[in-house]
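User: These chains co-purify. Model them together.
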Amino acid sequence: GAVVSQHPSWVICKSGTSVKIECRSLDFQATTMFWYRQFPKQSLMLMATSNEGSKATYEQGVEKDKFLINHASLTLSTLTVTSAHPEDSSFYICSAHASGSFTGELFFGEGSRLTVL
Amino acid sequence: DAKTTQPPSMDCAEGRAANLPCNHSTISGNEYVYWYRQIHSQGPQYIIHGLKNNETNEMASLIITEDRKSSTLILPHATLRDTAVYYCIVRVVNYGQNFVFGPGTRLSVLP
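Assistant: Joint model of the two components:
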């Protein structure tokens, strides 16, 4: 199946710093990518929809100034957690639909675990 | 998108078939059934999907009832590495829309 790659897979940072997570579609183009957050023992929660060349659409309760999303090309979307705090520690996952698929399956990255000290 | 109901947990002996049920009684005619799994500390992995007919690939088989109100994911020979949370999702094809994940079924494959 289509491959979506995230980097870094894990990161530890100090409170108040910013962290950037990259999401790449390796063998297909993705005009739309999705960013999720997952807390321990909970299901995935959609944070925002990232659209190539335009502003991201954020879900209710997600601060757009804190979670900056940039989708500058058809194969790369980035999530920057600005001024991170311990409560931002979580597992962040991106996903994209594979171009050329007529049945809409979604492919996910490996996830990025953020720990804010 | 149609709502799905899955048992919260299941056990399966290693080497035996794992049969994971999903109820989607309100499914509409143009909605597909998708199955994903999430192994601990990894992103969800696509397994299989179907519309009406039964489907099989290298990972699993998907059996959809004739009325499409329920389906079963079959892992023919479960291994310890199949221990994961399995999600059944029903929705129309929409490239601009995400997938909504419910609580899924936590499958434990036991030695």
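Chain A touches chain B at residues 1, 4, 6, 31-32, 34, 36, 43-44, 46, 49, 91, 93, 95, 97, 102-111, 113 (CB under 8 Å).
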